[in-house]
Design brief:
By secondary structure, this protein is α+β, with helices and mostly antiparallel strands. Helices cover 23% and strands 31% of the residues. The strands form four sheets. Strands 3, 4, 7, 8 and 9 form a five-stranded antiparallel beta sheet that branches. Helix 2 packs antiparallel against helix 3. The longest helix has 18 residues.
Length: 265
């Protein structure tokens, strides 16, 4: 679409029929020229097609996944996308939230990465403050290690287990904070009780929060735990790094440490 704009004064025309042979216009033709206006007319041509094309191109084209363009979100252009997930169970007297925490790695001089801390599952217990209301300011937390997760995975319907944590074990404040998590079967066999007792002498807290977990809810937790365990160990990072063309070279390099002696005999 083209738009023509005249920079000079418009012409006043009362009759579109002009005398083209150069003779004087008739009375019906009132074409008047202003002698003070220069005969050199300047026209500006503005093309709207290119603007329309650019708008369509940017509207229909999305940047690639590995685009180096900075994100519009402040601080999000230099870090990978993170996802926060969890699973919650709500009951009349308490609520339980289960959240995974990723393992930690450290970079080596060779460019590889080594796991320095295994992942874990964070349990958060909050007492009820009313009907379908929970006081999360009074929540108590308990971190499950991979071994403790394994104990819950293999726990039978009539079996129980107990975990004891001292966050300050080996430090000067050892014994001032005690956490005990008990998982016991319900009397009717329909699930398990999760009971967290916390004694914190540092802030004068002595609280016990318990919540019943049905068999179906416990099955969901066990299924999620089974999926998470290799990830908490960092094994998925190792599996994703395997390249067929590099496997032989890496295995040969590790043979000097005796790792392959059993299979090379």
């Amino acid at each position: 679409m083209l738009r023509l704009q005249s920079l000079s004064s418009p012409l006043t025309t009362q009759n579109p029929k002009l005398n083209l042979n150069g003779s004087s216009p008739t009375k019906r033709s009132a074409l008047k020229f202003n002698p003070n206006i220069s005969t050199n007319k300047k026209l500006s041509v503005k093309c709207r097609h290119s603007e329309h094309f650019e708008q369509q191109r940017f509207a229909t084209t999305s940047p690639p996944n590995n685009s180096s363009l900075p994100s519009q979100t402040p601080g999000a252009g230099t870090f990978p996308t993170r996802y926060f997930v969890g699973h919650s169970i709500y009951k009349g007297k308490a609520a339980l939230t289960v959240e995974p925490r990723a393992p930690e790695f450290t970079a080596l001089d060779s460019g590889a990465f080594k796991i320095t801390k295994e992942g874990f599952v964070l349990l958060q217990f909050a007492p009820a403050a009313g009907v379908r209301q929970y006081d999360w300011s009074r929540k108590q937390v308990f971190s499950l290690s991979v071994t403790e997760i394994g104990s819950l995975v293999c726990l039978g319907a009539k079996e129980s287990c107990e975990f004891f944590h001292d966050p300050f074990k080996g430090k000067s404040e050892e014994g001032k904070v005690r956490k005990v998590l008990k998982v016991e079967p319900l009397p009717d066999g329909s699930g398990h009780f999760f009971n967290l007792s916390v004694q914190n002498k540092l802030v004068n807290v002595d609280e016990s929060i318990y919540i019943p977990v049905t068999r179906a809810e416990y099955t969901v937790l066990v299924s999620a735990f089974n999926f998470l365990l290799p990830h908490l160990l960092g094994w998925q990072a190792f599996a994703n790094s395997i390249k067929p063309e590099e496997t032989t070279r890496v295995n040969n390099a590790n043979s000097r440490y005796g790792g392959d002696f059993e299979w090379s005999r």
